[in-house]
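Postdoc handover notes: sequence design on the structure in folder B. Input tokens:
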């Protein structure tokens, strides 16, 4: 069970709703993924532009917990304002804090992320900050009261997978709140690896929505996350320098 604040979920796959070829494919991919949490940018909500299509129109949002994010924010003030807009719309009491500090790499601004997290916790939000794989920042955010930590595997949408498994494993080892690997996952192998490291969940968007077949990729990611979690819980064997016989040697006749 994945526990985030007062919420509990069976699925450990969080899925984004953007960049699908069309709404029908989006709907099918979401359903096949069996996700229970959908995330999207507050800026894409049609409260900003009523003439735009509703990107959730094909989804029965009553079936899901919504996780609005503050994508597009450059400062803590921007992030807080977007979060309050989402809350005023009655979407959810959870918010993913995303404050970008570099337009080229889309890496988060650690200082503004910390400030936004601190303010939104005071406002009573369930806060999930998106960060780089900074071990110390992750600990500081947890100490602040963040309900989950969301370190990136690699830059957003890059599909490079986990480029720094050591730092990610350090974050997971020290955390007492869920660690949700977010950004950069490109394949089911990446998702399974994140779970094998001990992550509590994986958030995906581009890896599914921009795949050649988003629906099949949604299924593949679902199964990879399930397999990775089972593998982590089962405990893998240690790596050895030399071969070890699979069959016992005792009791063999000459």
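Designed sequence:
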């Amino acid at each position: 069970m994945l526990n985030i604040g007062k919420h509990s979920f069976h699925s450990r796959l969080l899925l984004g709703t953007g960049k699908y070829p069309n709404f029908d494919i989006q709907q099918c991919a979401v359903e096949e993924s069996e996700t229970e949490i959908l995330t999207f940018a507050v800026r894409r909500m049609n409260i900003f532009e009523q003439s735009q299509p509703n990107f959730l129109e094909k989804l029965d949002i009553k079936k899901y917990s919504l996780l609005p994010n503050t994508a597009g924010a450059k400062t803590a003030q921007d992030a807080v304002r977007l979060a309050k807009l989402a809350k005023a719309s009655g979407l959810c009491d959870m918010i993913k804090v995303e404050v970008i500090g570099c337009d080229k790499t889309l890496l988060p601004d650690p200082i503004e992320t910390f400030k936004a997290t601190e303010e939104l916790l005071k406002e009573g939000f369930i806060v999930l900050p998106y960060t780089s794989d900074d071990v110390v920042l992750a600990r500081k955010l947890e100490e602040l009261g963040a309900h989950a930590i969301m370190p990136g595997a690699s830059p957003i949408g890059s599909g490079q997978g986990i480029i720094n498994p050591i730092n990610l494993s350090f974050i997971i080892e020290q955390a007492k709140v869920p660690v949700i690997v977010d950004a950069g996952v490109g394949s089911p192998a990446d998702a399974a690896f994140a779970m094998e490291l001990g992550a509590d969940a994986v958030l995906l968007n581009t890896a599914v929505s921009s795949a050649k077949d988003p629906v099949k990729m949604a299924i593949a990611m679902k199964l990879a996350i399930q397999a990775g979690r089972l593998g982590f819980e089962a405990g893998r064997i240690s790596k050895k320098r030399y071969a070890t016989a699979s069959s016992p040697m005792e009791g063999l006749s000459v």
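Context for whoever picks this up: The longest helix spans residues 214-234. Don't rerun without checking with the PI first.
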